[in-house]
Amino acid sequence: MLSKAGTGNRSACNIARQGRRTFPKTEGVEIPANFGIIAGNGAYPLQMARAARAAGVKKIVVAAFENETRPELTELVDEIEWMRVGQLGKMIKCFTRREVKQAVMAGQIAPKNLFDLRPDVKALLVLGRLKQRNADTIFSAIGDELGKAGVRLLPATTFMDDQLAPEGLIAGPKISERELQDIAFGFEIAKETSRLDIGQTVVVKNGTVLAVEAFEGTNAAIKRGGELGRGEAIVAKVSKPDHDFRFDVPVIGPQTLETAREAGIRIIAVEAGRTLFVEREAVFAAAAQHRISIYGQRL
């Protein structure tokens, strides 16, 4: 599997096209008449709206969050309703009033906002039933409440299979055998830390772990590891062994590449078929400009 780095002499665009043929379109999902998006921050919700429209969705309804969702999403959808993080009752009604039966969560909610909720009565009842309150348990409980109201949460990659990372070298310079060994090591460590629910990203160099993502997030971990790696560090990003793709998808976007550039990262290695590119063309352009390799592997 790792030997596929030998494709490095081909252009990033050719490899990306080959990867898009490798992964089939979303299966088992009928095109809904009314489709809901629970929109967090960043470009992901915009990309989701475009993908849903391209797949044939006629009406897109968005539950948007103040100080999180980008206002320009309004131009891509049919109806949008703004609310605070924590207004679970309002979010459910946003969909049920418009007969939305299928929805996705797209984009992150800033951790400070997620854990500094001003919950409504519905959210308070849900939170009161949780023995542990973390992102996974909260989002899972939200999914359950939506399901009770007749709204099924679909994987957050729905309609976006062609945006998932292919196998092999995706962009940037060719990768050496020594670097492939570090990639394999990084994947091994990242899978273990993600299994322990510590973090899904690690930074390594020459068989040494430089940084492990925790609550501070991916970009902060990349900055810490890059400072220690001095231009030769490798980032490995994976999904959890029991990853619930309804609530979270490993994502690589332009900000990831900018952070990697500032930190002096040499390679970003991701899990093929389970990592999403947001603003893919911008990511590939940045990788080429800054000579940062992006590599995908099925695990």
Instruction: Give the amount of beta strand, in percent.
Output: 15-25%
| Intertermini distance | 9 Å
Architecture per CATH nomenclature, i.e. the level-2 architecture of the largest domain: 3-Layer(aba) Sandwich
According to CATH, the homologous superfamily of the largest domain is LpxI C-terminal catalytic domain
Description:
- By secondary structure, this protein is an alpha/beta fold.
- It has ten helices and 13 strands.
- The protein folds into two domains: 2-22 and 164-297, 3-Layer(aba) Sandwich (Cytidine Deaminase, domain 2); 34-153, 3-Layer(aba) Sandwich (Rossmann fold).
- Helix content is 37%, strand content 20%.
- α8 packs parallel to α9 (254-263) and α9 runs parallel beside α10 (280-290).
- It is globular.
- Mean pLDDT is 88; it is low at 1-25.
List the helices and strands and how they pair.
Elements: H1 12-22, E1 34-39, H2 44-55, E2 59-65, E3 79-83, H3 88-96, E4 102-106, H4 111-115, H5 121-128, H6 135-148, E5 152-153, E6 168-171, H7 177-195, E7 201-205, E8 208-212, H8 218-229, E9 233-237, E10 251-252, H9 254-263, E11 265-271, E12 276-277, H10 280-290, E13 293-297
Parallel strand pairs: 1-2, 1-4, 2-3, 4-5, 9-11, 10-12, 11-13
Antiparallel strand pairs: 6-13, 7-8, 7-9
Helix pairs in contact: 8-9, 9-10
Features:
13 strands; 2 domains; 299 residues; five-stranded parallel sheet; 10 helices; Rossmann fold; Cytidine Deaminase, domain 2
